[in-house]
Amino acid sequence: MNDALVKMHLGSVQFFKDRGLLEEYVAHDIKTMAPMLTRLKGMIDKTGEKEIALAGIFDRTACLYQLCMDLKSEPGKRSFTFPFSKVLGVARRNGQSDLTDRELHERWLKPRLLGYAAELGVGIEVSDIGPDGQVTVKLAA
């Protein structure tokens, strides 16, 4: 995976967490994605095809597929290995971070994905990190 991209995300999340601004950082990220999300929402509204949301969030976003080298795309579902665990473990051991995988997932990754979906007008379900490190995102029924 893209080590520099992983480290950049982890450094930024830690910076905002340390300042008590992580929720604001998530909201800012969603806002900066507005041009792409607005375009996709128009396509979804026009066609009624909710799969466009998953394709836009996962399949056509270089920053995501460079993080998740094992992204598995299925109709209505995307699965990938949580990409931060290895570098985050090193960062905790050397004092660069106090984030846990669960905290990073629950307070940063999951809220961003749910926020993107809300902007798209599409419901999704984001799993916890599984014992095998897998995260699954599905279109809500």
Secondary-structure blueprint of this entry?
Blueprint: H1 3-18, H2 22-32, H3 34-47, H4 51-59, H5 62-65, E1 72-74, E2 77-81, H6 85-93, H7 101-120, E3 124-126, E4 134-139
Antiparallel strand pairs: 1-2, 2-4, 3-4
Helix pairs in contact: 2-7, 3-4
Tell me which oligomeric state these chains represent.
single chain
Overall pLDDT confidence: 93
Number of strands: 4
Structural category is: alpha+beta
Strands in their spatial order, largest beta sheet: 1-2-4-3
Order of helices and strands: HHHHHEEHHEE
Low-confidence stretches: none
Radius of gyration: 15 Å
Q: Which word captures the global form? A: globular
Summarize the structure in words:
- With 141 residues, the chain is α+β, with helices and mostly antiparallel strands.
- Helix content is 59%, strand content 12%.
- It contains 7 helices and 4 strands, in the order H-H-H-H-H-E-E-H-H-E-E.
- The protein has helices at 3-18, 22-32, 34-47, 51-59, 62-65, 85-93, 101-120; strands at residues 72-74, 77-81, 124-126, 134-139.
- It has a 4-stranded antiparallel β-sheet, with helices on one face.
- Strand 3 (124-126) and strand 4 form a beta hairpin.
- Helix 2 runs parallel beside helix 7 and helix 3 (34-47) packs antiparallel against helix 4.
- The chain is globular.
- The protein starts with a helix and ends with a strand.
- The model has no long low-confidence stretch (mean pLDDT 93).
